[in-house]
Specification:
Strand content of chain A: 5-15%
Radius of gyration of chain A: 17 Å
Oligomer: homotrimer
Number of domains of chain A: 1
Structural class of chain A: alpha/beta
Low-confidence stretches of chain A: 137-141
Largest interface: A-B, 34 and 33 residues
Order of helices and strands of chain A: HEHEHEHEHEHHEEEHHHHE
Shape of chain A: globular
Largest sheet of chain A: 9 strands, mixed
Mean pLDDT of chain A: 94
Helix content of chain A: 40-55%
Chain lengths: 278, 278, 278
């Protein structure tokens, strides 16, 4: 992970985002603070042109507009055809027909990494028919949960693993990862599941900690393998969250201190992060 | 009001927003800092699905896109049919045909609370034909004012009362409120008019103090009556504004201190707020 | 420049923006911090209505949506017909067919000021056939660069001058300016080219320093000539950047300190700024 953190700071890789309007500013600022560069686009011609100069992309299905229904599947197919790597944040998976239709379309042209909370990972795995018990007419394991998870991360271990294996099976180099955010974060490449403790409960009291982690994961994906990218970004977030919590007095000062901490956290601090097998 | 503040912090009620792109991030962060949860959506299927799990909704007509013209009336009708409570922020009421058409459509499927500045409240009351002197061809009392009020809050007392009575007449439980933001804020349930002094002039030097107050009002509306929700949210904002002004050196540090103060203001401080009859 | 800074603080001129979703909040907050007022709109009826009460407008082509293709040319023509002054930020000029089509349409109904990085200024000058070597089939001087410049400001001196002369030739009063942001900023009215040193490298580590400079330039344009507006806004930004860098520990605290510094920088400090002939 040390190498990934250093590599991003040395080369300022650009990761493009198609992301929601709530946290788009924090996504860009977090990508810059981590040492990368940011570009945000929504029109397919714009996104596809920019992808030619971006190391990886980030797609977040938070605040949908009508034209996304055609635009997002088109963009995902273009990325798949070009072998372009991208990170998906399946925000609010399971809510709304339009979102479900868009997320379903990604099954055949999938991202390289999925990052979400436990409920979103479980919902996406169900939606793609990858759940163990998936059968037509089956009751889904998880109910839709809005943007907040109603499930614990441990409930997402098996779904995350299945999801990662599906992503890897369609990746040009057979490599993919899934990251589940929670009190303790999980990351898996489909084989091994890692547990990353730490962070701060204040990360749930600002909007966009999860979204911006997705954006920063895309920055790392521009310079390293999906598993290392997901691990390094998650570890950086946890270290920065701890530093920011100690330096703040509420969610306003937490967000400021968090961006400063993304900037100031050293490669050594990230590399020294505790990682356990799940 | 003490109970409402405590109840929000104890139960983390979710309020969904359909709001403008300028201040959408601050709305969500203010809702979280007040102790609630946030979700932002724009597509009718998404909004209506999410409303099933949200305690109340917030609609702000600030930065309109073409599809809002059909989407917003549809959403308002769905809320009305379901008896779902919502707060309207009629930003820039009176400017633009599209905005006028959307705001007119809300007359028959109205919100539970309207929060705006004096000019917006006067413009909406005129638009709905509720003004004393309202007659076809009449010159409106107030000229359009962009997003800034050109009228003093006192000019909005009678319009606010008439507006609140209209909202109440169509509410399932007969309860509604109107809040007018200004140097001294007004809140009315259609019968009594309350005056809430305090706050900070710096609240007009950051974008979104008004919008985010609307969002926080929706969070309170999820746990209490419209009158109490409007009073409690307005009082919380004034106390937080005073704390933030004392702790800041300009609009950048004011916004940070303001979010911290929303988080740290106690139920006792809100409950001790001065409230006068107007 | 002193007079422009004082005039803005004394009269709170409103500048309306049609701008991207990433930095829209910072644009509005910077306009307020500089002493102006902000309004953000996207629908032509809304923008054109609001322009009647705005001193100048700001258009930024960052995050395009499908309807902008018709809306933006329509708005530019309405401004041109009304002699309404506006600032263009040609973000990512050269990327995407939709953006190119929109930017091309502005050639005949141009802004009063263009502000961009060197690559954007060069790309726009090429696109409008104003470059010295412009001939059908010619290789453009600059390759598309995403949102980051790949060219040094000096490479944009001649393109900026040509661009400014084109803008001036179509301005009602024959006055226009072009501002090129970089390590040392350039401003030209088409005749003289000025160099403004200073600022902070941290301005490239937050998103929106350039966009919000465009918005603040529009606020100044509401009270003074294009050349003075571009010089004063650029000088204000450099002084505020220096103050913020000294007061911050990373990009989070830099943005906070930067907004405070926009608020606290005095007319004298702006007026004392170094300006050289290029």
């Amino acid at each position: 992970m040390r190498h990934a953190v250093e590599q991003v700071r040395a080369t300022t890789p650009m990761a493009q985002s198609f992301t929601n309007f709530v946290t788009i500013n924090l996504v860009a600022n977090a990508q810059l603070a981590a040492g990368g560069a940011a570009a945000m686009s929504f029109l397919p011609d714009d996104v596809i042109d920019t992808a030619a100069i971006s190391g990886a992309d980030y797609i977040n299905v938070g605040t949908l507009l009508p034209f996304y229904k055609d635009a997002l599947p088109k963009i995902a197919r273009a990325f798949h055809k070009a072998g372009h790597r991208w990170v998906l944040d399946p925000v609010a998976a399971g809510i709304g027909e339009t979102r479900t239709e868009i997320l379903r379309s990604f099954r055949a042209a999938p991202p390289t990494i999925v990052r979400g909370n436990a409920s979103e990972i479980i919902a996406l795995t169900d939606m793609w028919g990858l759940a163990e018990e998936a059968e037509p007419g089956n009751t889904p394991v998880s109910r839709p949960a809005g943007v907040e998870s109603v499930d614990e991360v441990d409930a997402a271990i098996e779904p995350a693993r299945r999801l990662a294996r599906h992503l890897a099976s369609l990746a040009p180099d057979g490599k993919a990862a899934v990251a589940v955010s929670g009190a303790v974060d999980l990351v898996t490449d489909g084989a091994t599941v890692y547990r990353l403790p730490g962070g701060s409960p204040m990360m749930t009291k600002i909007t966009g900690a999860g979204c911006s982690l997705g954006g920063v994961t895309a920055v790392y994906l521009a310079v390293t393998d999906p598993l290392v990218a997901a691990l390094a970004a998650t570890a950086l977030y946890n270290r920065a969250g701890e530093t920011a919590e100690a330096a703040s007095h509420g969610p306003g000062s937490f967000q400021v201190a968090f961006l400063d901490a993304l900037w100031n956290t050293t490669p050594d601090q990230v590399a020294a992060s505790e990682i356990h097998l799940a």
